[in-house]
Structure formats: structure tokens, C-alpha cells
Amino acid sequence: MVALWAIACLAAIPFAPRVADALQPGGFSNARTEGARGLQLLHQELGVSLSSVTIVFSHPDKRVTDADYAGEVERVLRSLAALPQAGNVVGFTTTGNARFVSADGRTTYAGIGLNATTAEAQRLLPALRERLPDTWLQVWITGGPAAYADIELVSQHDLARSETISLPLALLSLLVVFGGVVAAGVPLVVGGVAVLLTLGLVFLLGQVTEMSIFVQNLATMLGLGISIDYALLMVSRFREELAAHDVSEAVANTMDTAGRAVFFSGVTVFLGLAGLLLFDYVMLRSIGIGGCIVVAMSVLASLSLLPAVLAILGRRIDAWPLPLFRGLARRTHQQGSASPTGLWHALAVLVNRQPLLVFLVVLAVLTSLGAPFLRVRMGAPDVTVLPAYVESRQGFDILRREFGAGEIAPNFVVVESDGPVLAADRIGALYDYARALEKLPGVVRTESIVSLDAGIGKAQYQFLYSRPEAITDPAVKVQLDLLARGRVALVSVVSGHNPVSAEAAALVRAIRSVAPGPGLKAYVGGAPAELMDVVADLYTVFPQTLLLIVVSTYLALLVLFRSVVLPAKAVLMNTLSILASYGALVLIFQEGNLAGLLNFTPEGFVDATVPIIMFSVLFGLSMDYEVFMLSRVKEAYDRTGDNAAAVAEGLQRTGGIITSAALIIVIVAGSFAFADIIVVKALGIGMALAIFLDATIVRGMLVPSTMHLLGRANWWAPAWLRRRQAG
Q: Which domains does the chain have, with CATH numbers?
């Protein structure tokens, strides 16, 4: 068995280090949104590129209108536009539009369309940078492809930093638990094997389907955390069994008890992550796929590789003891034994004496922690997920500061006509539509072929476009070519609102409420609409995910515990700890508490993907500890038939090991608090906090107090189910 796993690892070694090459940044968009359909129309009818980069120019003294400044911008843009995949270049020097110049005249920008998909455009960045000539202007490259390239780079740095922090701390924790190098090293080996094989498989999957770069971070986080957890539980039970049995019987007993708990724990985590497959977003679907793979690898390694290693090591599992850690491990073992001493016995006695008081106090604490989630504001990620030091974020911040958030991220309305859009009646309807949009609260102006000159009325526009060949003004020709062709016209609606604000979302709804007129159909897109549509779409699917996870997990636990009540209680306990971590997300990432300490800039919302990922991951992870504890409680109950004694023994036996296992997860997940990408930082902190709460006050106090209050009702099952179980 060990040889088979060694061969699998050797096969994965060529692929795992190259996993980042097979992954794509982004993955937050959805082709079904209204804005995405409008963008596709623009691409088909107006030749608008599906992706583009923005080049930002600035100088501390010179003005854009100075001949040498404008000439230098043109020289740089010509060099960049020579890239074979480059398309239209739109900026001040190509259109003469003063909107491309900042109020102080020292900053300008230009967009370069790229004839490539978003993923392909990101790979073009090195070639684009090579064409960037030396210049005396300050230049930044930003926009979607540049941001995605930076996300990939920063993600790899985040992962390396996390591993540097978490692995030594995890080893230290294992040494405290086991007191020896061999026993502490075995879980790390199992975790490393699970992660190595997962990354190798993800690389291969990335060759045939699109996979998000974020799967690398989460798969590593999950793989190290849960595989070490599972191995820790198995090794602990094996050492316990060795005290009374020979090696082969100890391995068999370990598999029959801890192995069963690991299997069902893995099933619950797998089911939680599988819920992400319901989403039509590459990021979420990739995390679901990668998470399911790493859970499967962790369970397989724990139930096949680990027993083989234990059988080989036998009593040498305690080899290479370290005196300092040996003493700490002995005290930890005593506290987790069934003897009437130690912390967990004292806690069991307290819960047994005052179960109702303990239940009410812990319930009050958890609901108080979760209460801030009532004021949550959901948003979708953009370039602001990146730290301020990367180039694409710097360029974006300059644009936002110099031009305003609403100016650089306008709403765009793609108007589709049932005939030629330049026909007189269609121009009249488009004119009326643009004027109606201009009257909406918060709109600064509209830009379209019927908004070129405030002094021109509807009839003049109709006459002008009835003979397009007679248009001689070069500026009008450029605008006409950019804004209308065939059956499609583009109307930009510029507001003063931040794209992620509630006011921007309200304006999108107002724009969509305006009828475009006879013969016209409107698709409202742009950053504000896309953000709003993504959030709405995510939380339309999320209830289905919740239902799938909860029902499937309940059924799995029903099979394990042979009780109708215990699985329902487990679902409620998990939900409470997750809601408490949701409250922390609002306090930290929406409202900015601890922003200075954690080194990020709050944007006033919670990334909409984070609660979804957290629920899918945490529901199963938290259930691990429920399964670990209740499996031991059930062993005692089946032996004694005494509910109170079984709960006390289960808490005493598992309290120390659950705390130690949870500490590993908290360390691994918490190490991502130092990540530079805000989404990863939020996931790490949220998961670490939820697991900490779950393994301490939930499993140590809330679960036992609830079981004491329920008494024998914990084990109730209908007669038909008891008969089926007996059969």
C-alpha cells in the first residue's frame, strides 16, 4: 500500500509544481447576465473587444495638451498598438475627447482593445510590457487582464507565505499533542501526500476545463488542515488502542472507530463542497471541484496509506521522543482521558450540573457575534481585491482619484434595433430614450450618437444620420464608428456614484425601468450592473446549495448515528458557529474594524462569494468535530445506555483531541490572514474564527448541554428505521 501511494506521488511530482500555469484568474463573471449579453452584441456589431487594458499616463508638471506630452503619449500607444492582438485605441489623442484628461490636466488614459478572450489577454501582458518603450512619463497598465495577471502573482506569494507560517506551527502543535517526532511527522506526511496529489490532478483538469487560480490556495488550505486533522485522530486512537492490544488489533480497532468517523466526516465535507458545483461561476465551481478532490485524497490517504504506515511502525510510533514535548503531551493526554481529572472532566461536570444555563449563555454569545450580519451589504470583487502596491491597483486608484469612480466605471446601455439603428424613426426613439436617462437622479450625462452636441435637436440628428456619407467632421466620424453601427448603438450613462454603492445599484434599477421606445431593446451593463447582477444571481442559487448540503449531510449522519434527532441538532449547531463568523466578516471587512492591523482598505461591503464559500467549506469542517465527538458518545451510550454518562465520557475523551485538531485548522486557515488578496484574507480569517468557536464553546459546551437537556430523546428513531437498522 505504501508503495502504491509512493508511485502515485512520483507521478504527481512533474505536474503539481506547475499547477498555477493551468489555472485562470478571475472567474467571477457569468455569460447569462444582461450586461454580458450586451457586451456580446457590441463585439458582434461594433467590433468592441471582449477584453482591454487601460494605460494611465501622468506627469507632475506637464499638461496633456502640451505638444511634447501628447506626442509622447502617441509614441507609447503606437508601440503598444503594434502588438498583433491589439485592436482599437481610444483616448484623448485618438478622439480629442477632453473627458480623457484629468481636472488638473496632468493625467490621461487610453484603452487598448485586445482581440483575445480574458484568459488569453492576461497571457499577453508580458508581450505588451516588452513593447512599452522607455519614457519620461509615469505609466501604469491596469484593466481586467492586468489585474488578473497580478491576482495570479499575488496568489502564489500568498500561498508561499501561508505555508512558511503554517507548516512550522502545525508541526509544533503536533509535537505538543504527541511528544515525539515520528508521531508528529506522520500527519504531516499524510497531509503533504493529499495536497501533492490534489495539485497534480488539478493541473490535469486545468488542461481540459477552466479552473480558477483561487483553487490552489483553498485546496492547499483544506488539504493540509483536514488531512492532518484526520491523521491526528487516527494516530491518537491507534496509540490509545496500543495500550491494550497488539499492533494488528490496534490498527483494526482504530479503523473500526476513528476510521469510521473519518469516513463520515469526509462525506460531510465532500457534500458541503459539492454544493459549489451548482454555481455557474468558474471561481466557485473550481473551488468545489478542487475541494472535493482534496477531501477525497485526504480520506483515501487516511484510510489506506495511514493504516499501512501505522502497521509498519507499530509501537515505534512513539520513537524519537522529545523530553520537553513529552511532558506537555502527557498532560494533554490526561486531560483527554476518561479519568476524573483535568480540564475536560471539569467542563463535563459543569455542563452536567447546569445544562440549561450553559445552553442559554452560549446561545446568547453566538447570536450576539452573528448579529452584525443583519446589516451586511454584499458586493462583487474587482481590482480592489488586490493590495495597493501592485501596478494594476495603483493605476486604478489614480483613475478613481483623478476622474472619479463613476467616470471610469459608467453604466453602458446597448440598444438593439429591429432595423438599421441610423434610420430616422430609430434615431428619434434613441434621442428620446437618451433624454429620459439623463433626467434620472444621479446621472451626470449620457454619451451616445444623439448626445454629441447639446445644441442639436432630434430633427437635426435624424437629418444628419440619414446621410452618413455627408458627415465630414472627423470627430463625429470617430464617435459614430465607436457608438453605432448596423442594428446596435451604445449609450453610456455616467453618474457620480461609486460602482459598489447602494446609489449605483438604485440607478441601474432606474435605468432598467425606462422603456427604450418602439423598435428598440436595451441591455444595461457596465461595472455597477454587473456587480448587482452577479450578487443577485449568486443568492438565487445559494438557497438550492443550502438545501442540498443540509439534506445530504442530515441523511449521512442519520446513517452514522441511527438517530433522527442528533443530525438535526448537528445542523443547527453548525449553523450557529457559521453565523457567528459571518458577523465577524461584517465587522472586519465591511465596517473596517482591524483594517490597519490586517493591512487592507475596507470597501464598505462583504464580497458576495465569501459567505457562500465559507458555508460550503465550514459546514462540513465543523461537522468533523461533531462526528468525532458524537462517535465517541455513541460508543459509550451503546455500552452503558446512560445518556448523561455517555455525553460526559465523550467530552472527556475527545475534548483534547478536538481542540488539537481544530488548532491545526485555525493555524492553517489563520495564516491566510496575512494574504494580500482580500478575498483570500477574508476566507482565512472567517474560517479560522468559525472553527475556533466550533471546537471550543460549541463542541465543549453547547453540544453537551443540548444533549443533556434532550436526554434519551437524542437517540430516538422511528420504528421503521430501527427495524431497517436492525436488519
A: 50-142 (3.30.70.1320), 148-382+532-726 (no CATH), 397-498 (no CATH)
